[in-house]
Design brief:
- The chain has 20 helices and 18 strands.
- The longest helix is centred in the C-terminal third of the chain and has 53 residues.
- The strands form four sheets. Strands 5-6-7-3-8-9 form a six-stranded mixed beta sheet, with helices on both faces. Strands 14-15-16-12-17-18 form a six-stranded mixed beta sheet, with helices on both faces.
- It has four domains: about 130 residues, P-loop containing nucleotide triphosphate hydrolases (Rossmann fold, 3-Layer(aba) Sandwich); about 50 residues; about 210 residues, 3-Layer(aba) Sandwich (Rossmann fold); about 90 residues.
- About 0% of the residues have low confidence.
- With about 650 residues, it is of the alpha/beta class.
- The protein is globular and about 115 Å long.
- InterPro entries: AAA+_ATPase (IPR003593), ABC_tran_C (IPR032524), ABC_tran_Xtn (IPR032781), ABC_transporter-like_ATP-bd (IPR003439), ABC_transporter-like_CS (IPR017871), ABCF_ATPase (IPR051309), P-loop_NTPase (IPR027417), Val-tRNA_synth_C_sf (IPR037118).
- Keywords: ATP-binding, Coiled coil, Nucleotide-binding, Repeat.
- This is Thiamine ABC transporter substrate-binding protein.
- It comes from Vallitalea longa.
Length: about 650
């Protein structure tokens, strides 16, 4: 065990944020802390790192354990260049390297003193061994690899950190923490300023990281790829799930169903007992009254199950534009754009049809937002033509929230925009975007960035617009808000073009993906997983064509043979890896199926134990409890096998 949190409690004034939070992690665990905004996730991080003191409870970490913490708004304050700042993480290695150079100079100056030479040689050999096992010869390439992985190019390395944007400074802070290789990495929203390519690089880095990683993130795809444990904080309490994010979602739903069932059954039993008590008392006889009193005492001893209070995040509203557009919504032909000799894109040709939900992806700096501004006529393209179809009206979401009146309440904001809407219709719409009860009377100035984003999206979907342009709509949204947005867009009958780095969101929404590159747009007829599969197929085809090309060459046979052997080996290795992955996936699915069946049996036993004829019969109850214990042992064994396969 490398970290243990025992009964952590924290309150701010009268607001309890964390109550008896307990979990433990082993070395190498990759854990996610999940929960709605305000659940206390970042507070827990600050308690673990001693930035905050818990009101009660313990955080147990070995004194020799090194922590690395990236807070949500981490940014370095430094006058150094990016590269020089990274060199600070390698101070011990650089000191060893300088000492080795000094020893080399001293040895070169000794010519006759063999005893002194032997002593220097011995020191040099020992230090060189230490230097090698600490990867001393690769520290520069490690720095470059991490910086490039997080989206910096070599020209950026010499940039002064003080001149960088907030997002760039956060990426520098992340790079520095990764290079320091702490025993426990605590990362609060590490993907906030990363494009898809950088997210994929970070996923690979963290999956192979030897230390323990704890992540707070709203990037569900990212969590799915990395974590083997999910710690959920809900209503101040914690619940542990031994699996990735999808496993957590599946089993949380099962747990909620079980808890709801147990609550309903218990309430039925309580009502039945209360009815019996009333009946006994109604007769007025002492003997029956005593029996009623006895039942009342038994009823008071029942361990009451709390009423489930799950957020209703389903979308019950069918959102349709007031005006239906023509079938051809947008046609773009030969679009290009440059700024001050900086080329963004050219030769862009694409179409969008009515009802499509299209994702626009691409590396940072490729011009996605610029293309949105061209489509919405906020900016003029250098060449080409943008043609909107019949009755197409654009609604634009740009994260700036400039269209909101900060002095309005939510209900006033909708009413001002749509004065003919009834109060009931407004409330139903706001409820669909998770604004319920007294929330509708909040001032907009008091809302969080995510709440303002949801309000703007609600207004957009009620507007005359039938073609929505959404620029990073999931930024600053917690997971529940993202699910609300997904439901809203999936229920929207108009057309949507959206920019997003959220691959889970793209998978849920996109019917098609456009990938923006400097000289064209690549069209993929599916979601993000489909894009990944197609690119893997293209890479496999490229290797195959390269192999065929190499085999057809006759000149320089020795070189051809070496290249061919290497390429073929890589290709065969790729085939083997894919076969192994399929085999592993099948094993995982089989174990998940066994887990599901075993949990159904355990749930059935739980249901039986709630029956009066069972819990009043000691022999039956004991037998069922023994069965449950055996099944739980089997279940734990299956979970262990499942975790082992996930790590492979």
């Amino acid at each position: 065990m490398i970290l243990s949190c025992k009964n952590i409690c924290k309150a701010f004034v009268t607001n309890t944020v964390l109550d008896n939070i307990s979990f433990w992690l082993e070395k190498g665990d990759k854990a996610a802390i999940v929960g709605i905004n305000g659940a206390g996730k970042s507070t827990l991080f600050k308690i673990i790192t001693n930035e905050l003191e818990a009101d009660s409870g313990q955080v147990i970490i070995n004194s020799m354990t090194k922590l690395g913490y990236l807070s949500q708004n981490s940014s370095l304050s430094s006058e150094k260049t990016i590269y020089d700042e990274m060199l600070l993480t390698c101070k011990d290695i650089i000191d060893m390297e300088n000492t080795l150079r000094d020893l080399e100079i001293k040895m070169s100056q000794l010519s006759h003193d063999s005893e002194a030479m032997d002593s220097l040689m011995k020191s040099y050999s020992n230090l060189q061994h230490t230097f090698e096992i600490n990867n001393g010869y690769s520290y520069k390439s490690n720095i470059k690899g991490v910086l490039k992985g997080l989206g910096f190019c070599e020209e950026d390395f010499s940039a002064n950190i003080s001149t960088l944007s907030g997002g760039q400074k956060t990426r520098v802070a992340l790079a520095k923490i990764l290079l320091e290789k702490p025993d426990i990495l605590l990362l609060d929203e590490p993907t906030n300023h990363l494009d898809i390519k950088a997210c994929e690089w970070l996923e690979g880095f963290l999956c192979n990281y030897q230390g323990t990683v704890i992540i707070i993130s709203h990037d569900r795809y990212f969590l799915d790829k990395i974590v083997n444990k999910v710690i959920e904080i809900e209503n101040t309490h914690s619940q542990i799930y031994n699996g990735n994010y999808s496993f957590y979602i599946k089993h949380k739903s099962i747990n909620e169903d079980i808890q709801t069932k147990h609550y309903i059954e218990q309430q039925k039993e309580i009502r039945r007992q209360q009815e019996v008590i009333r009946e006994l008392r109604s007769h007025g006889r002492d003997k029956l009254i005593k029996r009623a009193q006895s039942r009342e005492k038994q009823l008071q001893k029942i361990n009451m199950i709390d009423k489930p209070s799950y957020v209703n995040d389903s979308m019950h509203l069918k959102l349709s534009p007031r005006t239906i557009s023509g079938n051809d919504v947008l046609t773009a032909t030969d679009i290009s754009k440059s700024f001050d000799n900086k080329h963004l894109f050219s030769n862009l040709v694409f179409q969008i049809k009515r009802g499509e939900k299209v994702a626009l992806i691409g590396d940072n700096g490729t011009g996605k937002t610029t293309l949105f501004r061209i489509i919405s006529h906020q900016l003029k393209q250098d060449t080409g033509d943008i043609s909107l179809g019949a009755k197409v009206q654009i609604g634009y979401y740009d994260q700036e929230h400039a269209t909101l009146n900060q002095n309005n309440t939510l209900i006033e904001e909708i009413s001002d925009a749509y004065p003919n809407m009834t109060s009931g219709h407004i409330r139903n719409t706001l409820a669909a975007f998770l604004f319920t009860g007294e929330d509708v009377f909040k001032r907009i100035s008091s809302l969080s960035g995510g709440e303002k984003g949801r309000l703007i999206l609600a207004k957009l979907m009620l507007s005359n617009a039938n073609f929505l342009l959404l620029d990073e709509p999931t930024n600053h949204l917690d997971i529940i808000s993202k699910e609300i947005l997904e439901s809203a867009i999936n229920n929207y009958t108009g057309t949507v073009l959206f920019i997003s780095h959220d691959r889970y969101f793209i998978n849920k929404i996109a019917t098609r993906v456009l990938e923006l590159t400097p000289d064209k747009i690549n069209n993929f007829l599916g979601n993000y997983n489909y894009v990944t599969e197609k690119k893997q197929e293209e890479e496999k085809q490229r290797l195959l064509e390269l192999e065929n090309s190499i085999n057809s060459k006759n000149n320089n046979k020795q070189i051809d043979t070496n290249i061919n052997s290497s390429t073929k080996k890589d290709w065969l290795k790729s085939k083997d890896q894919q076969a192994n992955k399929r085999k592993l996936d099948n094993q995982i699915k089989k174990i998940e199926s066994e887990i599901h069946e075993l949990e159904k049996i355990i749930n059935s036993i739980d249901d039986q134990l709630c029956l009066e004829e069972v819990y009043t019969n000691a022999e039956k109850a004991t037998k069922l409890l023994e069965e449950k214990t055996n099944h739980n042992t089997q279940l734990e064994s299956l979970y262990e096998k499942w975790e082992e396969l996930l790590v492979e």
